Amino acid sequence: MARDSSISLEDFEEMLAWLDPDREVAATLYLQLREDLANILKWKGSTDPEGLTDEVFERVARKVHEVRPTYEGDPRLYFRAVANNVAKEDLKKAKTRVPLEGQDLPQQKTTEIDEETVAVEECLQSCLEKLSTENRKLIVAYYVKEKQAKIDNRSELARQLQTSVETLRVRVYRIRKSLRQCIERCLKHKAQEK
User: Fold this and answer.
1) Which of 29, 70, 84, 183 could form a disulfide with 19, with the two C-beta atoms 3.0–4.6 Å apart?
2) Nearest one of 66, 64, 71 to 10, comparing CA atoms
3) CA-CA distance, 49 to 169, in Å (whole number)?
Protein backbone atom coordinates (compact mmCIF):
# COMPACT_ATOMS: atom_id res chain seq x y z
CA MET A 1 0.00 0.00 0.00
CA ALA A 2 2.40 2.58 -1.12
CA ARG A 3 1.09 6.01 -0.42
CA ASP A 4 2.06 9.60 -0.87
CA SER A 5 2.18 11.59 2.33
CA SER A 6 -0.19 14.53 2.48
CA ILE A 7 1.37 16.08 5.60
CA SER A 8 2.24 19.71 5.01
CA LEU A 9 5.57 20.98 6.31
CA GLU A 10 3.74 23.31 8.71
CA ASP A 11 1.67 20.43 10.17
CA PHE A 12 4.76 18.23 10.42
CA GLU A 13 6.67 20.97 12.29
CA GLU A 14 3.70 21.47 14.63
CA MET A 15 3.56 17.73 15.26
CA LEU A 16 7.29 17.64 16.10
CA ALA A 17 6.92 20.67 18.39
CA TRP A 18 4.08 18.87 20.18
CA LEU A 19 6.31 15.86 20.81
CA ASP A 20 9.03 18.10 22.31
CA PRO A 21 10.01 21.77 22.00
CA ASP A 22 13.66 20.75 21.41
CA ARG A 23 13.83 19.82 17.73
CA GLU A 24 16.56 17.18 18.21
CA VAL A 25 14.63 15.46 21.00
CA ALA A 26 11.41 15.72 18.98
CA ALA A 27 13.09 14.07 15.96
CA THR A 28 14.33 11.21 18.14
CA LEU A 29 10.87 10.79 19.69
CA TYR A 30 9.29 10.87 16.23
CA LEU A 31 11.52 8.09 14.90
CA GLN A 32 10.97 5.97 18.01
CA LEU A 33 7.22 6.59 17.86
CA ARG A 34 7.15 5.61 14.18
CA GLU A 35 8.87 2.32 15.01
CA ASP A 36 6.58 1.71 18.01
CA LEU A 37 3.42 2.37 15.98
CA ALA A 38 4.57 0.07 13.16
CA ASN A 39 5.21 -2.66 15.74
CA ILE A 40 1.79 -2.12 17.34
CA LEU A 41 0.08 -2.29 13.94
CA LYS A 42 2.08 -5.37 12.98
CA TRP A 43 1.16 -7.02 16.27
CA LYS A 44 -2.52 -6.25 15.65
CA GLY A 45 -2.32 -8.16 12.35
CA SER A 46 -1.83 -5.41 9.77
CA THR A 47 -0.37 -6.55 6.47
CA ASP A 48 1.01 -3.04 5.86
CA PRO A 49 2.20 -1.60 9.18
CA GLU A 50 4.38 1.04 7.51
CA GLY A 51 1.55 2.32 5.33
CA LEU A 52 -0.83 2.43 8.26
CA THR A 53 1.80 4.20 10.37
CA ASP A 54 1.89 6.87 7.67
CA GLU A 55 -1.90 7.06 7.91
CA VAL A 56 -1.67 7.58 11.69
CA PHE A 57 0.77 10.47 11.28
CA GLU A 58 -1.37 12.02 8.54
CA ARG A 59 -4.48 11.90 10.74
CA VAL A 60 -2.66 13.39 13.72
CA ALA A 61 -1.11 16.08 11.51
CA ARG A 62 -4.57 17.10 10.24
CA LYS A 63 -5.80 17.48 13.84
CA VAL A 64 -2.66 18.70 15.62
CA HIS A 65 -3.70 22.38 15.53
CA GLU A 66 -7.02 21.53 17.22
CA VAL A 67 -5.81 18.90 19.67
CA ARG A 68 -2.47 20.28 20.88
CA PRO A 69 -3.76 23.37 22.76
CA THR A 70 -6.19 21.39 24.94
CA TYR A 71 -4.51 17.97 25.17
CA GLU A 72 -3.00 17.10 28.54
CA GLY A 73 -0.42 14.40 29.04
CA ASP A 74 2.06 12.60 26.81
CA PRO A 75 1.15 13.25 23.15
CA ARG A 76 2.49 9.80 22.20
CA LEU A 77 -0.58 8.33 23.88
CA TYR A 78 -2.75 10.26 21.42
CA PHE A 79 -0.75 8.80 18.50
CA ARG A 80 -1.23 5.30 19.94
CA ALA A 81 -4.98 5.85 20.30
CA VAL A 82 -5.17 6.92 16.65
CA ALA A 83 -3.11 3.83 15.72
CA ASN A 84 -5.61 1.62 17.56
CA ASN A 85 -8.47 3.19 15.58
CA VAL A 86 -6.58 2.74 12.29
CA ALA A 87 -5.88 -0.91 13.19
CA LYS A 88 -9.59 -1.52 13.90
CA GLU A 89 -10.56 0.07 10.57
CA ASP A 90 -7.97 -2.04 8.75
CA LEU A 91 -9.29 -5.19 10.40
CA LYS A 92 -12.86 -4.29 9.35
CA LYS A 93 -11.71 -3.74 5.77
CA ALA A 94 -9.86 -7.05 5.79
CA LYS A 95 -13.03 -8.87 6.89
CA THR A 96 -15.01 -7.39 4.00
CA ARG A 97 -12.47 -8.45 1.38
CA VAL A 98 -13.42 -11.54 -0.57
CA PRO A 99 -10.74 -13.74 -2.13
CA LEU A 100 -11.06 -13.82 -5.90
CA GLU A 101 -9.86 -17.39 -6.35
CA GLY A 102 -12.60 -19.52 -7.87
CA GLN A 103 -14.85 -16.54 -8.59
CA ASP A 104 -16.31 -15.96 -12.03
CA LEU A 105 -15.54 -12.36 -12.81
CA PRO A 106 -17.02 -10.45 -15.72
CA GLN A 107 -14.53 -10.34 -18.55
CA GLN A 108 -13.33 -6.96 -19.71
CA LYS A 109 -12.19 -6.30 -23.20
CA THR A 110 -8.64 -7.57 -23.26
CA THR A 111 -7.58 -5.07 -25.92
CA GLU A 112 -8.51 -2.16 -23.64
CA ILE A 113 -6.66 -3.66 -20.71
CA ASP A 114 -3.68 -4.57 -22.85
CA GLU A 115 -3.45 -1.13 -24.48
CA GLU A 116 -3.73 0.67 -21.16
CA THR A 117 -1.29 -1.69 -19.44
CA VAL A 118 1.18 -1.41 -22.29
CA ALA A 119 0.95 2.40 -22.24
CA VAL A 120 1.56 2.57 -18.49
CA GLU A 121 4.47 0.12 -18.71
CA GLU A 122 6.02 2.03 -21.60
CA CYS A 123 5.72 5.30 -19.69
CA LEU A 124 7.10 3.72 -16.52
CA GLN A 125 10.14 2.36 -18.39
CA SER A 126 10.68 5.69 -20.12
CA CYS A 127 10.44 7.60 -16.84
CA LEU A 128 12.70 5.14 -15.00
CA GLU A 129 15.34 5.70 -17.69
CA LYS A 130 15.19 9.44 -17.03
CA LEU A 131 16.15 8.91 -13.38
CA SER A 132 19.77 8.89 -12.28
CA THR A 133 21.25 5.39 -12.07
CA GLU A 134 21.40 5.67 -8.27
CA ASN A 135 17.73 6.72 -7.94
CA ARG A 136 16.57 4.07 -10.43
CA LYS A 137 18.36 1.29 -8.52
CA LEU A 138 17.02 2.61 -5.19
CA ILE A 139 13.36 2.80 -6.26
CA VAL A 140 13.46 -0.67 -7.82
CA ALA A 141 15.20 -2.18 -4.77
CA TYR A 142 12.75 -0.45 -2.40
CA TYR A 143 9.69 -2.13 -3.94
CA VAL A 144 11.13 -5.55 -4.71
CA LYS A 145 9.81 -7.60 -1.76
CA GLU A 146 6.49 -8.31 -0.01
CA LYS A 147 5.30 -8.43 3.63
CA GLN A 148 8.01 -9.05 6.27
CA ALA A 149 10.70 -9.46 3.59
CA LYS A 150 9.79 -5.94 2.39
CA ILE A 151 10.35 -4.48 5.87
CA ASP A 152 13.65 -6.35 6.28
CA ASN A 153 14.77 -5.30 2.79
CA ARG A 154 14.06 -1.62 3.51
CA SER A 155 15.99 -1.79 6.78
CA GLU A 156 18.92 -3.35 4.92
CA LEU A 157 18.74 -0.65 2.21
CA ALA A 158 18.85 2.06 4.88
CA ARG A 159 21.83 0.35 6.52
CA GLN A 160 23.67 0.13 3.17
CA LEU A 161 23.01 3.83 2.52
CA GLN A 162 24.07 4.64 6.11
CA THR A 163 20.80 6.42 6.83
CA SER A 164 17.62 5.86 8.84
CA VAL A 165 14.61 4.04 7.43
CA GLU A 166 12.65 7.29 7.80
CA THR A 167 15.17 9.22 5.72
CA LEU A 168 15.09 6.42 3.15
CA ARG A 169 11.29 6.61 3.08
CA VAL A 170 11.38 10.38 2.44
CA ARG A 171 13.95 9.93 -0.32
CA VAL A 172 11.87 7.21 -2.02
CA TYR A 173 8.74 9.35 -1.63
CA ARG A 174 10.41 12.16 -3.57
CA ILE A 175 11.58 9.80 -6.32
CA ARG A 176 8.12 8.19 -6.52
CA LYS A 177 6.47 11.61 -6.72
CA SER A 178 8.66 12.67 -9.65
CA LEU A 179 8.05 9.29 -11.32
CA ARG A 180 4.29 9.66 -10.94
CA GLN A 181 4.36 13.14 -12.46
CA CYS A 182 6.51 11.89 -15.35
CA ILE A 183 4.16 8.93 -15.99
CA GLU A 184 1.09 11.19 -15.90
CA ARG A 185 2.69 13.55 -18.44
CA CYS A 186 3.68 10.61 -20.62
CA LEU A 187 0.17 9.08 -20.55
CA LYS A 188 -1.38 12.47 -21.29
CA HIS A 189 0.98 12.88 -24.24
CA LYS A 190 0.12 9.36 -25.52
CA ALA A 191 -3.62 10.12 -25.23
CA GLN A 192 -3.20 13.32 -27.25
CA GLU A 193 -1.35 11.41 -29.96
CA LYS A 194 -4.37 9.12 -30.56
Assistant:
1) 29
2) 64
3) 14
For residue 149, how many other CB atoms are within 10 A of its CB?
10
Q: What is the mean pLDDT of residues 161-186?
A: 90
Orientation of helix 49-67 relative to helix 147-160, angle to 10°: 70
With CA atoms as reference, report the closest residue to 57 among 4, 21, 1.
4
CA gap 113, 108 in Å, rounded: 8
Mean pLDDT of the chain: 84
- The whole model's pTM is what? 0.49
pLDDT per position as a tens digit, 139-153: 888 888 777 888 888
**Three-state SS at 69:** coil
The Cα 18–Cα 20 span in angstroms is 5
Give the domains, in start order, of the chain with CATH numbers. Answer: 9-96 (1.10.1740), 110-189 (1.10.10)
